[in-house]
Amino acid sequence: MGMKLEDIGERALVRRLSGIFSKGSGIIEGAGEDDCAVVDIGHSECLVITTDMLHRTTDFPEMMTPWQIGWMSAAVNLSDIAAKGARPLGLVMAMGLTPDLEVGFVEDIAKGMETCARTYGTYILGGDTDSHSELTIAGTAVGLTQKDLLVRRSGAKPGDLVCVTGHLGSAGAALRALMNGHEAGGAVMRALLEPVPRIAEGLALAATRAVTSMMDVSDGLAVSLYELSRAGGVGFRVHAAKIPMLPEVACLDDALSLATHTGGDFELLFTIRPDALGDVRKACSFSVIGEVTGEGILIEREGKDETLPERGYEHLRTTTYPSA
Q: In CATH, which superfamily holds the domain spanning 34-148?
């Protein structure tokens, strides 16, 4: 019997499939190499392109309004553009729809997409609609950046500082509360239902020229650290006490697990040269949570180091940690 997808999970599958696809001379970052594909378009600029697919059963909590479904569908794609330090040019959105959906429901999805796109200075350029067994939305976002400002997953060096925007664990805490029939605070719930793509922060960070690597943490902090480790051939040591969390999350017994191992927080994880910390502080608000090392992924708690397990949200797995 052949190997099943549930045995290897999404990330291993992506690595296997990426090895099948060829990479042309004009492709700076190809399939599976980064948050976005990057294409050289000549002169001083390059295009960044990304796509994400979302499903009713796995990605949209039951209480989510159609407007929020539309917002999230655009936001998750824009988050990848932000991770490249790029300016979004537009999105195309394909919707697989069940025939029993009300027209107004679908129109509200489109309104959510439109609001998200306009909020971050871009547009919905078009897309496709088709019949499907469950609500499925696949978005593609395109962005533009200067070649000399392009930020990749690779590039971190030992001694660099590990940083993150915003707060972690909020989306995971909100989803768990919903699944258990409990309530969550407004800021925590918004992190789950109306995620914020860090476009302005990504642009500002790239402009400092001090960021050595970057990606978003939508699948969880731990998973993202491992991805950056594989891309750059380095290790990381993060400090539990420095991981930023909202008070409503920090007070929970398993707050650290929520912050490190649940997905849905569309924040930027990045590394910077330590000598540039003062200048980068002027670009945007962020927290320094650790440092780049030679190897291994460690978390320090109360003076003791331990390996941070590579757990987080992953499609195609039979067991996974929750995501938005």
A: PurM-like, N-terminal domain (3.30.1330.10)
pLDDT per position as a tens digit, 41-77: 988 999 999 999 999 998 998 889 999 999 999 999 9
H helix count then E strand count, the chain: 11, 13
Identify the residue with better confidence: 142 or 1: 142
* Exposure class string for 111-140: b at 16+ Cβ within 10 A, else e: ebbbebbeebebebeebeeeebeebbbbbb
Q: What's the whole-number average pLDDT of the chain? A: 93
In 185-267, where do the E strands start and end?
211-216, 235-239
**N-term to C-term CA, the chain:** 33
| Residue of 8, 5, 103, 10 whose CA lies nearest to 314 | 10
Would you tell me which CATH number, out of the four given (3.90.650.10, 3.60.110.10, 2.102.10.10, 3.20.20.70), belongs to the domain 152-307? 3.90.650.10
Q: Could you give the strand order of the β-sheet that contains 268-272, starting from the edge strand earlier in sequence?
A: 211-216, 268-272, 161-164, 287-293, 235-239, 297-301, 304-307
Q: Which of 314, 136, 84, 129 is nearest to 222 (CA)?
A: 314
Three-state SS letters, 169-198: CHHHHHHHHHHCCCCCCHHHHHHHHCCCCC
- Whether 37 contacts 30, CB under 8 Å: yes
pTM of the predicted structure, to 2 decimals:
0.92
Taking only the tens place, the pLDDT of each residue in 227-265 is 999 999 999 999 999 999 999 999 999 999 999 999 999
CATH 3.30.1330.10 maps onto the chain at 34-148
